[in-house]
């Protein structure tokens, strides 16, 4: 077991028992804040304090304007080039004029907020640790609660929206309508992005779509309550995503950081913009051409912070489809670096390992 700062000082500390007690409340981090805690409990403590005020020069995440890409071939070519540059270096970019109305983005943020702030007894009925994919909506605090070395300062819900779209009655009332609307819009945007990425790789426009990259979408609604001692804990531990791409909507509070050129860089929220990042599976099928970058979310005294992450993956759903590096991208000088695996095999390994700061990709290298 990895010891955190508190457990190193207190050898009699029974972390497992404290995790279990926290889990059994079914009220998450919000429950602790509602109870008026003034100190961060031991299960959340980092081995060393988080540096919230880094002195390094600010690097600016590339912003890509999608305006006119379907009307103007010259414009499209420019955008494809920008997508290629961003995914080869940052693994991330921000996009504007993406086609999803601001009103839909705002309503989605509000839907996540309303879910997490509904009556505790009502919300508890969605609380589960069943990640098999059979449960339509999974609400809990920390999917990897019992595996990760440090508990994260956030609560989340996870809804699988494709390939088998839910019936409205299967979704939580506070965000039911907007979840259906937002996920439809995000899927259309995802299709557009996979086409741009295919072209950026020098492949036919529909190559990644034909591989099934846009077959599955899960929407995660994260809620980061205000934290009394933000430097002692973390909103989300540094990690990479276990999907093809993630489309992220964040509210105005901020806290997302990306690891780029050996330093952590802030991604301040831009009203109306969405952030896109490559996941591990995109790195695997592009044979490391596109990078799945580490990112994290710091805890904050101001809150709650809300974000909505749309994961393009079929995740835990059992499929026989095996993914491996795309043959067209390989050569004698650039042989395959990863073995063929299913998405479920990857997700199961990733979840079992938990967010421990290491890449799950290493396990699948040839």
Q: Could you list some keywords that capture this structure?
A:
single chain, 366 residues, alpha+beta, Jelly Rolls, eight-stranded mixed beta sheet, four-stranded antiparallel beta sheet, 29% helix, globular
What does this entry look like structurally?
It is a single chain. The protein is α+β, with helices and mostly antiparallel strands and 366 residues long. It has a single domain, classed as Jelly Rolls. The protein is 29% helix and 18% strand. It contains ten helices and 14 strands. It has helices at residues 5-9, 15-25, 28-34, 73-89, 102-116, 120-124, 176-200, 207-210, 280-285, 343-353, and strands at residues 63-65, 92-96, 137-140, 155-162, 217-224, 236-239, 245-250, 256-260, 263-266, 274-278, 295-297, 305-312, 322-323, 341-342. The strands form three sheets. The protein has an eight-stranded mixed sheet. The protein has a four-stranded antiparallel sheet with strand order 6-11-8-9, with no helix packed on it. The chain has a two-stranded antiparallel ribbon with strand order 13-14. α4 (73-89) packs across α7 and α5 (102-116) packs across α7. The longest helix has 25 residues, at 176-200. The two termini are 28 Å apart.
